[in-house]
Amino acid sequence: MFRDIDDARAVIRTIAVDEADTPLSDGQQKLLLDRLIAQFWITPSDEPARPGATRFGGAPDVPAAASWPMRPVPSELAKPEPDLDGYFKIDMKHFEWIANHVVRKLPFEFLAQIDLQEAAKYPSAAHGLPDKGRLLFFWDGVVGTLKSGPEACHVLWDNAETSSLIRLGVPQLLHELEAAYDPDGRHKKPYVWPERPMRLMPMVHLPHRSSADLVADAALAAIADDKRFEESYALLTAMDEGQFSADGRNARRQRFMGSPDPEQDDPRFDAIVAGGFAPPPWKGAQLSDAARAALDWQLLLQADLGDLSQDRLTEGTVYFLIRRDDLTRRDFSRVHAIYQQT
């Protein structure tokens, strides 16, 4: 990850030329610069909290008439004897607490709000977004760890004037669910995530080795796949390299827009499968088709849950993805949440 193209040029020169066993050619360096993707890093802010500002956790800032969004009981499970095994595609006999959770209508967990006017100051990274209002990100951290798609999330574009906003109260039920998760206190599953003021830092980055961007780009893949250059490419796409200072575990992985940093395969591949694309393994033309289909999806938010919870025992990343044509229409009702954990 790099601050801008000049920073990228200098770091590429250092890592992939000066310190590399096999240096990249001038043409290969130019290719990398041409493939940089604009994105925001979501980093802690020292500014006092204000209504509507970019923030993690706590509760959202909303108009006075708004209510906390609820996760409905999935239609497949709203029956006397729901097929939980079929819904989650796993044997549920050892997960009674999950069964009890999913068949109830419950409040979503609030993860983040993003100030779109702040993002609009950097058009290249905010390309396609509304230029005012806020995006509010909600998730169900039980269903969402087992089911990919729109069922486990709710993303709201709120366009109200900031002067009309109030801080919504956290539903008491979320506190009760958190307390009941493990009465002995040895384990914790966040239902109310720590509140932290954040800000958007524009940056550019190269596609991750597992990303659909790279699968669809033969020229870039030729560099990343070449054993002479793969170490340099890995360093250039590593989260712990570059010119940024981190703020805790995996803080650099908190991203908005751009291309995802997968824990496994590109989460956009999960999105196309959830939408009906044939599941992997893919080879040849089918892999190319899958990559093109995946690139029809835009990353909205990448939230590293360990950093989000400020708890080193919390694992995984949740990716909020939207179809590009839905983003153009300002339709956030079909956003997919994809959870990955290594």
Give an account of the 3D structure.
With 342 residues, the chain is an alpha+beta fold. Helix content is 28%, strand content 21%. Helix 1 packs antiparallel against helix 9 and helix 10 packs across helix 11. The protein is globular and about 65 Å long.
Q: Which terms would index this structure?
A:
alpha+beta; Hypothetical protein YwqG fold; globular; two-stranded antiparallel sheet; 342 residues; 14 strands; ten-stranded antiparallel beta sheet; single chain
Could you provide a short overview of the structure?
With 342 residues, the chain is of the alpha+beta class. It has helices at 5-18, 26-34, 84-88, 96-102, 116-119, 172-181, 212-215, 218-224, 230-236, 267-274, 284-294, 305-309, 324-328; strands at 37-44, 55-56, 61-63, 70-71, 106-107, 109-115, 134-139, 153-158, 165-167, 196-205, 255-256, 297-304, 317-323, 336-340. It is built from 13 helices and 14 strands.
Portion in strands: 15-25%
CATH superfamily: YwqG-like
CATH class: Mainly Beta
CATH topological fold name = Hypothetical protein YwqG fold
> What's the SSE pattern?
HHEEEEHHEEHEEEHEHHHEHHEHEHE
Backbone shape: globular
Distance between the termini: 21 Å
Number of helices: 13
Radius of gyration: 21 Å
On the 0 to 100 scale, the average pLDDT is 91
- CATH architecture, by name, is Roll
Structural class: alpha+beta
